[in-house]
Structures are given as C-alpha cells and as structure tokens.
C-alpha cells in the first residue's frame, strides 16, 4: 500500500544523495559511456541524471516504475525492527516515485520512438511518445513533497550538495572509463573524460596538484608480474589504485576512498590500513588522498549490510588490512618516500 511504500522510501531514500546514487547506478547498469548529474539547491529542488545507455521502450519504462516485489514490511514496528532486511533491489524507481515527482524520458538504442513517463507520489500521471535522444534522462522534483516529516530532516543546501558530490565522486573514480559530470545550480563541479585511466579521473575530480602527487599501488596475490605483495593467508586477489605523497594531504579523512570488488565502501579498518602505511610521515591531523581498490573473493566479503549505508564486513580482516598496508607502503617506498 502507498503509505507503507512512502515510509519505506523515506527510510531508504534518506536525502537527495540517495536518489542520485540509485539513478547513477541505473545509468551505469544501462551501459552508459556518458552520464551527467545536475542538481539544484543541493538536490532539494531538483535532480537530473542523463545517460547514453541502452534506454527503454514504452513497456519497459512502464514496468520500471512498478513495484517489483511485495513489500516485506507490514507495520511501522517491522520497519523499526530492521529496515536492513528490506530488499531495495528492483525498487529504486518505484520508491523514489512514491516520494517525489519524477519525469523519465527514454529511447532505446537504435529505436525510433522515445517515451516520456511521469510519476507523482507513486501514481503514473502521464505516459506517451516523446522526441528524445537515445538513452535515458530521469528528473526528480519536489523530493519528499508528500512526506513533510522527511522533508524537514533535509539539511542545508551546502550539506546536501556535499553528500551528492561525495556520491558522484566515488562513482567517477570507480568508473574511469565512463565520462561522468556533475553540475550544481548550473555550474560545472567536475567532468571526467572517460579515458579509462584512474589518474585522469583523479585529475578531473581533485585537480592537477593532487593527481601529480599520486603514487601507484599495485599489490595482492593475483599479480601476473610477480612484483606485487603476496601476503600469506590473505584472501586478497588484488590491491590497486593511487595514494598521495605524504605531503599532499587534507585535514579530513574524506579523501580516503576505498572500494571493495568495485563498490565504494565505508570501512574504517581499510582507511586505517592505508594510514598505517604512512607511519609517522603525516603531519598531525592530516590525511592523504587515496583511491584504493581491493578485490576479494565474493565469499570473504559482506557488502550492503544496509542498503543505504555502504558498510562492509570482511572475513580475515587482519590479513586483508595487513595486505593493504603492505601494498600502500610498497608504493610509497618505491618512490623513496
Ligand atoms: P533495479 O536497478 O534494482 O533493477 P530500479 O528501480 O532502479 O531497480 O530500476 C528498475 C528497472 O528500470 C531496471 O532494472 C532497468 O531495467 C530499468 N532502468 C532504470 N534506469 C534505467 C536507465 N537509466 N537506463 C535503462 N534502463 C533503466
Ligand atoms: Mg537500480
């Protein structure tokens, strides 16, 4: 029922950044080579994600906004007992549509007609043919207009934009082969070129000074050239990425980004493992930049402990963190740092 959907949506779609995350994931899933995100007032006034992915025909877009599965919750008590059990997969567009006004314009690759579909507060209010390029654009307006309690929890524009920026940055770094851009109130914040190399993505996102300070990390068990770190008893398949020279730092940990099996995760243990590699080389309360990809066998990691937090649980945590520290230390030592 609609009320339950709205409550569930409010729990999972917490703020504009959660909408952006779901839409960007959909665009990447659709095989986009180019993807642009534009938000207004931190996303509180509007969110638009455009891609050149496979697109949808009319039937597909009508299906996309439907509820895919029966909601697993019946009451608010169930919800509070643990929204972590709520399957959000197959539910993003539906739940976003339940708490906002959404316009989707989409055309399949190679197709000759586009479709525009509009959803307001969970109801499809219009659908019909529309002229549009191949790919998909989803525009979300009036987020939480029908859930005032949730709307009240939105923070200031700079704070909400900060969250959006963080999300888009992580996808841009994790997908250097896709040209990803972010615009806030009609101003370009960054745009990657999609050339495929991480350093050029870092340059677009963090700027030249940072990109030039980055050292290549290349470790783990799966090294074909045999030069990588091969920690015993570690399930790590590979560790790769870029970490900054110890003199190129910021006063926050926000620029330490860790990805497990290609997905951004907030993992304090991995951040700490990176910091440990710097030993005493960092000034007090200074943190390096790091974009680090750790690949593990699927059975040694439990991602998505919660659908909107990006926590991760690692088996053999000590061995994994040791491998990360070793790989980062090796990268710094290779430069004589
Ligand atoms: P999920 O991504 O988990 O399948 P969503 O509600 O996010 O659930 O999307 C529902 C469906 O709509 C997707 O499975 C996909 O088929 C289609 N879809 C959504 N966004 C796009 C897009 N940008 N391009 C093409 N298809 C899309
Ligand atoms: Mg999705």
From TrEMBL:
**Full protein: residues contained:** 34 to 370 of 789
* Top-level taxon: Archaea
Species of origin reads Halobellus salinus
Q: Which gene is this protein's source?
A: mutL
Q: What does this protein do?
A: This protein is involved in the repair of mismatches in DNA. It is required for dam-dependent methyl-directed DNA mismatch repair. May act as a 'molecular matchmaker', a protein that promotes the formation of a stable complex between two or more DNA-binding proteins in an ATP-dependent manner without itself being part of a final effector complex.
Chain intervals for the UniProt region annotation (Disordered):
216-247
Domain DNA mismatch repair protein S5, first and last residues per copy: 202-333
Family from the record:
Belongs to the DNA mismatch repair MutL/HexB family.
Task: Quote the protein name from its UniProt record.
Answer: DNA mismatch repair protein MutL
């Amino acid at each position: 029922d609609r009320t339950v959907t709205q409550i569930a949506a409010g729990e999972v779609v917490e703020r504009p950044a959660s909408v952006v995350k779901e839409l960007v994931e959909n665009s990447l899933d659709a095989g986009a080579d180019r993807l642009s995100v534009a938000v207004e007032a931190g996303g509180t006034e509007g969110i638009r994600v455009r891609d050149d992915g496979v697109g949808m025909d009319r039937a597909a877009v009508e299906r996309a906004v439907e509820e895919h599965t029966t909601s697993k919750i019946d009451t608010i008590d169930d919800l509070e007992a643990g929204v972590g059990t709520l399957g959000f997969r197959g539910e993003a567009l539906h739940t976003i549509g339940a708490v906002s006004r959404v316009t989707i314009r989409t055309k399949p690759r190679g197709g000759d007609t586009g479709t525009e579909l509009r959803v307001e507060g969970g109801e499809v209010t219009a659908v019909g043919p529309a002229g549009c390029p191949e790919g998909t654009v989803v525009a979300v307006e009036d987020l939480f207009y029908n859930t005032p309690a949730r709307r009240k929890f939105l923070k200031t524009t700079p704070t909400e934009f900060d969250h959006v920026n963080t999300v888009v940055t992580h996808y841009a770094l994790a997908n250097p082969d896709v040209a990803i851009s972010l615009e806030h109130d009609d101003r370009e914040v960054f745009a990657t070129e999609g050339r495929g190399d991480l350093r050029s993505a870092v340059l677009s996102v963090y700027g030249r000074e940072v990109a030039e300070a980055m050292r290549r990390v290349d470790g783990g068990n799966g090294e074909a050239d045999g030069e990588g770190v091969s920690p015993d008893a570690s399930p790590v398949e590979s560790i790769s990425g870029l970490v900054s020279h110890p003199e190129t730092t910021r006063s926050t940990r926000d620029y330490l980004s860790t990805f497990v099996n290609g997905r951004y995760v907030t993992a304090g243990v991995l951040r700490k493992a990176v910091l440990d590699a710097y030993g005493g080389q960092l000034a007090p309360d200074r943190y390096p930049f790091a974009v680090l990809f750790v690949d593990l066998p699927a059975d040694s990691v439990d991602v998505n402990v919660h659908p909107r937090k990006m926590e991760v649980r690692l088996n053999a945590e000590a061995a994994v963190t040791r491998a990360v520290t070793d790989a980062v230390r090796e990268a710094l030592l290779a430069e004589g740092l």
